[in-house]
């Protein structure tokens, strides 16, 4: 290949490095494999010359123990996944939600409440996080266009970052504390009933449905868009016939105008 | 004033329309008044010639009944605040959190669970949402700089939108279903214990603390930044002395270069 521009070189590098570890899918996600539900939209985006996906999550439920909290100027920072945080469960597929909590020791403790917690208590959090896609664009115009499409499809927390990177985000969420971790064993003390945990799973299924519905709307809108550079696309027989017809008409018009001038 | 550029005209218009309804605070929020905790950063941002805040929320706890769910292509869309959604409680101040739930009829129902809900069941949701600021910038360079500062201060969901509007966002959240609304009366059936509701309040206080801590870091970073146009700023005696010295030096150099040419 000759004289590729820097964006095309970078895109090639990203796609090559992924293809070598992750056959058939195109993304630079550190996880190493791409969420199944993201593959069609990632392939679609990467079929445009002026865009490349750099990370993605198709939406997920996660349950984790917060990391140890840190004091910062006498203020305790809320827990995050770092600092000895522990993942208990993650799934990107609604069919895996059923009875996830049976795999863990979630103990009942009568009347667990305010008097049992301190500022540094670590909670077990149950989260639903929606689709997120990061797309590096060749130029600002492409980034602006992708941003506008995403917003119009209801991804109202999208934004353009540095270097024409577009983050596509929406607000379908759950974020609920469900247990307390006392730190000295692997036991978790439930703050909610088992029925509530089952309901969270049910509500998460609804969130997944809404999330995938939004994803399909986004797919359709991007597939219909004309970005500065067109996607690589194999012409069907019918499209070829139509193109030939149009070319024929143009040729006739051209000959006509040449002969009349 | 003569020959104002379009941005400065727009900024003046925004600030004027606010000042008339909302003395002493500067913002175009539809709410009509600005959250107290936002006023210092809004005033700071608006002191820069090339930025104007267009909406803000300092962070809040809200409790609301989802609106009626709609079917869309046989899929039920999850509930949002529209479509007959009802606010039960909103506060931007942690000191108002105590016992908010005592103001409502939150009924206990033994073993409320999966069998009591359908796809169109409306939930009462408890949410913590962090600071959000929208800032219209005069040009892309200013927007990029404000975006970079926000990201560096931990507002990792920030982004540049259309017309150089920067959204400053982070991910300090809570989003938990706490009751079911049966639609035919004003009764809400609790999914969690009263102790759990108290714990949510306690955890929300921690979220507020973290949120305001982040806000103060952002304030400091913006106040130290040099944007393309400088903030209006009253010169101190010392600064005046320094400026006069520099001007004197420049004059000398100018005279020197003129005499030597």
From TrEMBL, chains A, B:
Biased composition (Basic and acidic residues): 231-248
Gene Ontology MF, one: methyltransferase activity
Enzyme class: transferase
InterPro entries linked: tRNA_yW-synthesising (IPR003827), tRNA_yW-synthesising-like_sf (IPR036602)
Job of this protein: S-adenosyl-L-methionine-dependent methyltransferase that acts as a component of the wybutosine biosynthesis pathway. Wybutosine is a hyper modified guanosine with a tricyclic base found at the 3'-position adjacent to the anticodon of eukaryotic phenylalanine tRNA.
Region (Disordered): 229-248
Family annotation (Pfam families): TYW3 (PF02676)
Catalyzed chemical reaction(s): 4-demethyl-7-[(3S)-3-amino-3-carboxypropyl]wyosine(37) in tRNA(Phe) + S-adenosyl-L-methionine = 7-[(3S)-3-amino-3-carboxypropyl]wyosine(37) in tRNA(Phe) + S-adenosyl-L-homocysteine + H(+)
Organism of provenance: Pichia sorbitophila (strain ATCC MYA-4447 / BCRC 22081 / CBS 7064 / NBRC 10061 / NRRL Y-12695) (Hybrid yeast)
Domain of life: Eukaryota
Sequence similarity: Belongs to the TYW3 family.
Pathway connected to this protein: tRNA modification; wybutosine-tRNA(Phe) biosynthesis
Keyword list, A-Z: Methyltransferase, S-adenosyl-L-methionine, Transferase, tRNA processing
Name of the protein: tRNA wybutosine-synthesizing protein 3
EC numbers, comma separated: 2.1.1.282
UniProt cross-references to Gene3D superfamilies, sorted A to Z: tRNA wybutosine-synthesizing-like (3.30.1960.10)
Residue ranges of domain tRNA wybutosine-synthesizing protein in the record: 9-223
């Amino acid at each position: 290949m000759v004289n590729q521009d820097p964006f095309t070189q970078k895109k090639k590098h990203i796609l090559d490095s992924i293809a070598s570890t992750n056959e058939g899918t195109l993304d630079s996600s550190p996880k190493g494999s791409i969420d199944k539900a993201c593959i069609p939209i990632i392939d679609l985006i990467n079929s445009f010359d002026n865009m490349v996906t750099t990370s993605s999550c198709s939406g997920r439920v996660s349950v984790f123990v917060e990391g140890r909290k840190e004091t910062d100027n006498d203020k305790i920072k809320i827990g995050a996944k770092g600092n000895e945080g522990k993942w208990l469960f993650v799934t990107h597929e609604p069919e895996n939600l059923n009875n996830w909590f049976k795999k863990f020791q979630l103990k009942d403790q009568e009347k667990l409440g305010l008097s049992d917690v301190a500022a540094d208590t670590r909670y077990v959090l149950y989260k639903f996080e929606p689709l997120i896609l990061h797309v590096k664009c060749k130029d600002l115009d492409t980034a602006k266009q992708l941003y506008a499409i995403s917003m119009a499809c209801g991804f109202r927390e999208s934004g353009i970052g540095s270097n024409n990177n577009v983050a596509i985000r929406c607000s379908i969420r759950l974020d609920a504390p469900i247990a307390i971790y006392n730190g000295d064993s692997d036991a978790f003390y439930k703050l909610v009933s088992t029925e509530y945990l089952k309901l969270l799973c049910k509500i998460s299924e609804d969130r997944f449905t809404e999330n995938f519905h939004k994803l399909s709307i986004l797919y359709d809108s991007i597939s219909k868009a004309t970005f500065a550079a067109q996607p690589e696309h194999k012409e069907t027989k019918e499209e070829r016939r139509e193109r030939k017809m149009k070319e024929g008409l143009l040729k006739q018009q051209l000959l006509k105008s040449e002969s009349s001038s």
